[in-house]
Protein: Gentisate 1,2-dioxygenase
Organism: Streptomyces capitiformicae
Amino acid sequence: MTTDADGTTPATATASVPVIAPDETDPDLRKLYDGFAAAGLIPLWTEIGDLMPLTPRPGAVPHVWQWDTLLPLARRSGDLVPVGRGGERRAIALANPGLPGRPYATPNLWAAIQYLGPREVAPAHRHSQGAFRFILEGEGVWTVVNGDAVEMRPGDLLLTPSMHWHGHHHVGDEPMVWLDGLDIPLVHRLDAGFFEFGEDGVSDRSTPSRSRNERLWGHPGLRPIAAPDTPNSPLMAYRWADTDDALTAQLELEDEGHPGVIEPGRAGIRFTNPATGRDALASLRTEMHRLRPGTTTATRRTVGSSVWQVFRGNGTVTLDDRVIEVAAGDLIAVPSWCALTIAADTRLDLFTFNDAPLYEALNLARTETTTRTETTTRTETTGSTTA
């Protein structure tokens, strides 16, 4: 569906709607409300504005966490907070200012900086929540997922699907820092969470360059016949070298006049389950994007929330009407229906995860894209909730 610059069409432009409401000063009405409250009832006519708004009104707000602030705090926590039973992980959650008192980046997404020092071991456990790690700095760490040791390197995406055992051990001399992403808020609201402790260390202290799951599943376009389909990816590691090659190839094809990029100057890949072709994690979508220097994206608003992290480069993000400079490591929370525009000063590589699989499964997905030229503005709305 396409709209004009003022955001309306003849079919969607709204006229003034008369409001019919009871007299809230009527004593008999107050007694009726008291009766509702005593019976555990709430009338729809007093709540409909919040329950069924004209457009999404998320509690979360657009927000940017600067890496220059986060990293020193993570290092200090490494000096003061041990890793082990009790806290389990030295993970520092992003707390959205619009969700006071909750360690949530958005209502559905949990994001944290995890810091593991040299020779430290994070003990094994498993939980209902699906999780990933996107590696930012350091080397010498292996995560052991269901007994399979997987090396962690900068730029890699590592998965820990729901109810997979996992622990980490560090054999290197410098700390490692990574982004944790989980569906903790969603699982919490659904009352679906289970957690189990494993051994105090990890089951495998080996340090292979290639894990067993990569040897079985890490061959592009080749699926092992004997392996069953799984709702989450059986491949636990998506390597930066492969991601980098794919993004580079898209931009090279654009230079040669061939399709492949998302929009001019912007390449992107999605991490998928090689068994099914769907998202790598059932409840979270994970992607990597690359912008050429000087590229400005179209402005997009999406039902559902996302978190972005700058991996390399510098640029700006516009969140609704706020323009914020971002650099390597910075994290950005984008609530549902927040307008997002990204501009690259240098080559800009960004990792992002979002809750789109949930909205697509519920037939609630919707995206509004606005593209601007010197003379025109065009807005297109797509998704299962459009007419």
Q: What stands out?
A: The chain is about 15% helix and 30% strand.
